[in-house]
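Quick board copy: two proteins, each given as sequence then tokens.
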Amino acid sequence: MRHIISILLENQTGALSRVVGLFSQKGYNIETITAAPTEDPSITRITITLFGDGRTIEKITKQLHRLINVIKVAILNEDQDGAVEREILFVKLQAVNRDTREEIKFICDIFRAAIVDVTPVLLTVQFVNTSEEIDRFLKAIGEHAEVIETVRSGVCGIARGDHSLHV
């Protein structure tokens, strides 16, 4: 099962490295990872997605709590309310002729994606949604245009409702 782990840690040199090193040492594969300062610049929030059973996730959580600089750890999707999650995609597409450009624009309208850069032969599209929707978008757009390059941010998530991860 796919899990989203959110970690608050002190924004110190080497803190992120220790978190990633834990996963590497234990042989856990990180699917996606994002990190950025929170509303308090001395605290960083890391969001990690990975696949594993409940026992594995519990072990990871306990090991993360033992790390220096870790303040809090939460599994966002274990609560019955779940989490709001999004990922951003930038995709560069070859669009040499007018028909291809029109088809790309049509698909972007359906998925509510935005064309953010245009050259005579390339279009760059931005799409923000869940990982599953991004996969669907890439499949649809790939049937009508050649994908030159993709960049994905990884999942960002926040608990729904009253639940929050703060100091």
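And the next:
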Amino acid sequence: MKLEKMTSAHIDGVCKIEEACFSHPWSRQSIESELNNDGSVFVAALEGERVIGYIGMSVVIDEGYIFNVAVDADFRKKGVGTALINELVTFGKKHNLCFITLEVRESNQPARSLYSKFGFIKVGERKDYYSDPAENAVLMTKYF
């Protein structure tokens, strides 16, 4: 597995992962638009030329807001998510961010556990944030 700065060449693979992982996936247009935003950081995880995961974050001054973290089901529990989170945490330190924050489904214990390993802590909840199925979001933040 290798990590690369995401480019338009990765979008087809990212769209496939979005469709498989999320009940309300981002559209191709939304991904392309955000990828071209100077305030966004995207990293793709690759096995050969195949996109097996990705992560995206918006940077506003000295704050990071993670959009999505997704890993192809065939590559879960193989360190892909860990590598992607590590990449953004390293970016946050290097660029002197005050914090990185994200929302995660309350029931997504594997993701919550992964974020905790990197020092993300629960800082709040968003009631009924998700739909299909309806569920609260847990807000998790890593402070630097």
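Board note added afterward: The mean pLDDT is 96.
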